[in-house]
Design brief:
The protein is of the alpha/beta class. The chain has twelve helices and nine strands. Helix 1 runs parallel beside helix 5, helix 7 runs parallel beside helix 12 and helix 10 packs antiparallel against helix 11.
């Protein structure tokens, strides 16, 4: 696997692609919508006009784009889709966070070409992408997973084959439910502490030593205290993930009341102009509703 395709070089995709390049791989980038980052081009980075051209040139094609419609377009667009360049021996690895049900359909269609398909969404944010410490939740064939694992190991540390096609995406939706509700809990706790007259920074420090400690309290709690809400992981993207959870819940006839509440808080942030804030800025919705800011 000397040549690897990488489609989607945004906040997450760009550092992931760089980690693969730093390990010695030559990457092919699709420029059907925008130019590839200049710093990734050169001896180890080649620009291609379309996703189809990337697929023709590469054995493994990674996709890292925002949502289900973008993945579908990259894969199956009649003019430039990856599908046109697929054949036996090639593998598509979708690391985007998208619909589990759509993922199953995409996998079936890709595999009709003779190629293999894996869904492998990630958690860990921009920090994890840069450090190569992402958690990767994989759905697909075990033999394909073993073959692609050396590449996954350059991108992440906690790499789990969850099950078949779509199961990686289902795991990512579950992850996003937990993250959203933890952000909401930390937001409420710090808001309560500050309104009661305590220093929220010291409250967070104290809680880090007890059973309430969490990665969200450590990282996002600090962002809440300091008011540093540059993404990160944008609220708009977390809204997309919670939509997947709530749509899936309707299909499965489940009630996810706290997930729905977290989505409403993100919607309040969006109404305040914060769609592109980091998701730790959920606390701003609670501050707005309480007419009290923990940083004042």
């Amino acid at each position: 696997m000397k040549n690897i395709g990488f489609i989607g070089t945004g906040i997450m995709g760009k550092p992931m692609a760089k980690n693969l390049q730093d390990a010695g791989y030559t990457l092919y980038f699709a420029e059907h919508f925008e130019k590839a980052p200049a710093e990734l081009l050169g001896a180890k980075g080649i620009a291609c006009p379309t996703p189809a051209a990337v697929a023709l040139a590469c054995e493994v094609i990674f996709i890292m784009v925002p949502d289900t419609p973008q993945v579908e377009d990259v894969l199956f667009n009649e003019e430039y889709g990856v599908e046109k360049g697929l054949s036996a021996g090639k593998t598509v690895v979708d690391m985007s966070s998208i619909s589990p049900m759509a993922t199953k359909r995409f996998a079936a269609r890709v595999e009709k070409t003779g190629a293999q398909y894996m869904d492998a969404p990630v958690s860990g944010g921009e920090v994890g992408a840069k450090a190569g410490t992402l958690s990767i939740m994989v759905g697909g064939d075990p033999e394909v997973f073993e073959r692609i694992s050396p590449l996954f190991q350059l991108l992440g540390k906690n790499i789990t084959l969850v099950g078949g096609h779509g199961d990686g995406q289902t795991c990512k939706v579950a992850n996003q439910i937990i993250v959203a509700l933890n952000i909401e809990a930390v937001s409420e706790a710090l808001l309560f502490a500050a309104k009661a007259g305590a220093d929220p920074a010291r409250v967070r420090q104290a809680l880090m030593g007890g059973f309430a400690s969490s990665k969200i309290l450590e990282v996002h709690g600090e962002r809440m205290v300091k008011g540093t809400f540059d993404p990160g992981f944008r609220i708009a993207l977390h809204q997309k993930d919670l939509n997947l959870a709530l749509e899936g819940a309707r299909e499965l006839q489940l009630n996810l009341p706290n997930t729905a509440m977290a989505q409403q808080l993100f919607s309040t942030c969006a109404a305040l102009g914060g769609s592109h804030w980091d998701h730790s800025a959920m606390i701003r919705a609670l501050e707005h509703m309480s007419n009290f800011c923990i940083r004042d």
